[in-house]
Amino acid sequence: MSRELDAKDIELVKKLVPEIVNFLESGRMEIEYMNILPPVANHYSRNANDFEKRLQRLSAEDVKYLADKIMDGSESISHLDPEYAEAFFTIAGRTLSEDVADKLREIYETGEGCG
Asked: In 1-61, which ranges are E strands?
């Protein structure tokens, strides 16, 4: 299920993609995404390693927010390449718990995260 990003979501995008902050604040760009992770992975990250580095900028609270959104179906991870998805699961495992990472991995593998 896709959604319209709210203020919290936009703040996460800014943390993950700081190079767009000036464009957003000047009004030269608007974020029209319906998810956070796929656009960051597919449009801004050079590779899975870069994506993981971007994810490391997030606080534990931010990672939990994204994990909760994935689990409730409002954040899609279905359009992440496997290595990008695994980067998120790694961060979730380190930051939250391996149990959470395993649940997220299961959602990805079963296609339940098809937003």
From this structure: none
pLDDT tens-digit map of 22-61: 766 766 656 677 899 999 999 999 999 999 999 999 999 9
Joined tokens for residue 55? 């994810």
Question: Is 1 among the domain residues?
Answer: no
Q: How far apart are the first and last CA of the chain?
A: 4
Nearest one of 66, 70, 56, 64 to 1, comparing CA atoms:
70
Query: Which pTM was predicted?
Result: 0.89
Phi and psi at 111, nearest 5°, equal 80, 10
Query: In sequence order, what E strands does 47-114 have?
Result: none
Q: Is residue 20 included in any domain, yes or no?
A: yes
Domain count, the chain: 1
Element at 60 (helix H, strand E): helix 60-71
Please check whether residue 2 lies inside any domain of the structure.
Answer: no
29: in domain: yes
Q: What angle do CA 25, 59, 27 make, to 5 degrees?
A: 10
Domain span holding position 31? 7-110
